[in-house]
UniProtKB/TrEMBL annotation:
Segments traversing the membrane: none
The keyword NAD is annotated on this UniProt entry: yes
Superkingdom in the source lineage: Bacteria
Keyword tRNA-binding set for record: no
Residue ranges of domain RCK N-terminal in the record: 1-117
Protein name listed in UniProt: Trk system potassium uptake protein TrkA
Sequence ranges assigned to domain RCK C-terminal in this UniProt record: 137-218
Length: 222
């Protein structure tokens, strides 16, 4: 897979190193000469250019990329890069970094963003996920299709504890994708039994989240 990353700061370089370790091709783009530190990520391709300029993206051959990551520290730049990647080059997957949570509402399909990653939101979600049982926690927002990755730890008092996955009438526009049970990661099967303490990960439409929480939580038993 070929990935272009706009922004060669600490965030961009860290993402690049991880992707390279996983066997992907990576191109780092930055317009600041001091950011071009080839020795820090020597296996990546590097391009000194403004990722908001069509000529730069032509040089980067963005049409060959499977994924573009807008990882600069400037939300305006990240939105422009996302829009150009999607509309001008037809990049299948565009991931964008949200620096200011107040701008998160802009990171949607209209701006070419498939996945928006907000570090403050993600950190707060991970804190909630660590301490919350029976409450739905939103981990990640997928702009395309208005869907979210959400998590809920099944409380012992839930009416669904001991129920087979295949016997649950899940809300529309929701999909149970993973069950984390202790140190095990399970791909849900109809014959699997839901157990207290299971961490359930769903991809769900935003307007179905409350219905999903009611189904799984203690309130469902009242």
């Amino acid at each position: 897979m070929r990935v272009a990353i706009a922004g060669a700061g600490a965030v961009g370089r860290s993402i690049a190193a991880e992707l390279l370790d996983n066997g992907h091709e990576v191109l780092l783009i930055d317009k600041t000469p001091s950011a071009i530190s080839v020795e820090r990520v020597p296996r990546a391709e590097w391009l000194l250019a403004d990722a908001c300029e069509i000529t730069s993206l032509d040089e980067a051959a963005l049409q060959r990329c499977n994924v573009v990551i807008a990882a600069t520290g400037d939300d305006k730049v990240n939105l422009v890069v996302s829009l150009l990647a999607k509309t001008e080059y037809g990049v299948p997957r565009v991931v964008a970094r949200v620096n200011n949570p107040r701008n998160e509402w802009l990171y949607n399909e209209a701006w070419g963003v498939d996945v928006a990653v907000s570090t403050p939101r993600l950190m707060s979600a991970l804190v909630e996920e660590a301490v919350s049982v029976g409450d739905l926690v939103r981990l990640l927002r997928f702009s395309h299709g208005d869907a979210n990755l959400v998590e809920l730890t099944l409380p012992p008092e839930s009416a669904l504890t001991g129920t087979l996955v295949g016997d649950v009438s899940w809300p529309e526009d929701t999909s149970l994708v993973t069950i984390i049970r202790g140190s095990r990661v399970l791909t849900p099967k109809p014959e699997d039994t839901l157990e207290a303490g299971d961490e359930l990960l769903f991809v769900a439409a935003q307007d179905r989240e409350e219905q999903l929480e009611d189904l799984l939580s203690v309130r469902h038993t009242s």
